[in-house]
Amino acid sequence: MQISITVNGQQRTDEVEPRLLLAHYLREVCGLKATNLGCDTTSCGACTVIVDGLSVKSCTVLAAQTDGAQVTTLEGLTGPDGEMHPVQKAFREEHGLQCGFCTPGMVMAAIGVLADNPDPTDREIREGLEGNLCRCTGYHNIVRAVQSAAGAGPAAGQVPQAQEVAR
C-alpha cells in the first residue's frame, strides 16, 4: 500500500506492507536510526516519536496508521541553524543519559510531558515518563533535565514546524 507521511518536515510517499510498524518504517525505509527498538511491546519506550503532536511508541503503531500524519523523530528536533531542541540541551547539561540507547525515546517522551504540562512537578515528570525505561540511570538526572527544559519556556513542549526543520 502507498502512504504519504511528513517525516521531520519532509513529505514522503512510500510503498509499504500493511503490517509494517512505524518504528521499522522510520529505521529501514527512512534511514532514521535514532528511533531504537528495545522490546516491540511498548514496554521500554526507546521507540517513542511525536505523531501529530503526541508522543507515541512507534513499535505498536502501523506505518499505514500514520498516513497523512506529521511524524517527528529525534533527528527532526534540530533547528535550521543546527541548534538543539531545549530538551536535548537539558539532557546534555543535566547528564540525563548514560549509554544513550533510551535517550531518543526519553527525549521525545519528555517533549510530550512538557506539551501536556509546561511546568510539571518531579512526580508528574516521573509519571509522564513511566513507560520509558532506562537501564543505566536512576532517573534523577533525567527528571532534572525535564525540569531544566521546562524552565526554557513553551518551546520545550513543541517540535519544530516543517519549514524550520534542518535538512
UniProtKB/TrEMBL annotation:
SUPFAM superfamilies: 2Fe-2S ferredoxin-like, CO dehydrogenase ISP C-domain like. Keywords: 2Fe-2S, Iron, Iron-sulfur, Metal-binding, Oxidoreductase. The keyword Transport does not apply. GO terms for molecular function: 2 iron, 2 sulfur cluster binding; metal ion binding; oxidoreductase activity. Pfam families: Fer2, Fer2_2. The keyword Iron-sulfur applies. Residues 1-77 form the 2Fe-2S ferredoxin-type domain. This is Carbon-monoxide dehydrogenase small subunit. It comes from Geodermatophilus siccatus. The lineage of its organism: Bacteria, Bacillati, Actinomycetota, Actinomycetes, Geodermatophilales.
